[in-house]
Design a protein that fits this description.
The chain is an alpha/beta fold. It has one domain: 3-Layer(aba) Sandwich (Rossmann fold). The chain has eight helices and five strands, in the order E-H-E-H-H-H-E-H-E-H-H-E-H. The radius of gyration is 16 Å and the shape is globular. The structure holds adenosine-5'-triphosphate (ATP), (3R,4S,5R)-3,4,5-trihydroxycyclohex-1-ENE-1-carboxylic acid and magnesium ion. Magnesium ion binds next to helix 1. The site of adenosine-5'-triphosphate has 19 residues, from helix 1 and helix 8. Belongs to the shikimate kinase family.
């Protein structure tokens, strides 16, 4: 597809772990011929370490500062950025995203999140956590996620339905 959305700045997909940001962002970037940048993947490549190892060896604060570094260096247009689930926690990250683009929040109920991430060992903040603890983390972050330009409740939607909704949003955005 041509770059029909030229002129739109960066589109950030935000949301909790397992909401589908990386999966959906990849499909949208392919459909629109946009660049794709996944902040988690970028950090792992740059640091030559898995996220789990970064958390273990350097701690969460170091990881959050790496997220800020990635956001500061983003290209300015035709890019879908799929963010890490906790990127919104840091105020400076929220400011950079707001300044550089539009934010689409992919909401998903915790029960579904837990189904999707069951058995996953790559997300340090989900290891050995009860449903209540995961929900607590989600509730702490909720106001930051909700501070987005668009919100999609993905809980009962298929991947292709979510992709279609985002494409509609981008069309609407473009015609403003
Ligand atoms: N709408 C959906 N329906 C069914 N499965 C989904 C849906 N969205 C995502 N998934 C599945 O859920 C899992 C987690 O998705 P994904 O890795 O894209 O989440 P994420 O939001 O990028 O998480 P993280 O914040 O940890 O990076 C994947 O296995 C993906 O295929
Ligand atoms: O929600 C979070 O804090 C995280 C989500 C993942 O995308 C990774 O960025 C990492 O596992 C931390
Ligand atoms: Mg992801």
């Amino acid at each position: 597809m041509d770059r029909v959305y030229d002129g739109v700045k960066i589109i950030f997909l935000t949301g909790f772990m397992g909401a589908g940001k990386s999966t959906i962002g990849k499909i949208i970037a392919e459909k629109l011929n946009y660049k794709l940048l996944d902040t988690d993947a970028k950090i792992e490549t740059t640091k030559h370490k898995s996220i789990a190892m970064i958390f273990q060896e350097e701690g969460e604060a170091a990881f959050r500062s790496y997220e800020t570094d990635v956001l500061k260096k983003l290209p300015v247009e035709n890019t879908i950025v799929t963010t890490g689930g906790g990127i919104v926690v840091n105020e400076v990250n929220r400011e950079i995203m707001r300044e550089k683009g539009s934010i689409v929040y992919l909401h998903c109920d915790i029960e579904r999140i837990l189904e999707r991430t069951k058995g996953d060992t790559t997300r340090p903040l989900l290891q050995n956590k009860s449903k209540e603890q995961v929900n607590e983390l989600f509730l702490q972050r909720k106001p930051f996620y909700e501070d987005a330009d668009y919100k999609i409740d993905t809980t009962n939607l298929s991947i292709s339905e979510i992709v279609d909704k985002i494409l509609l949003i981008l069309n609407e955005y473009r015609s403003k």
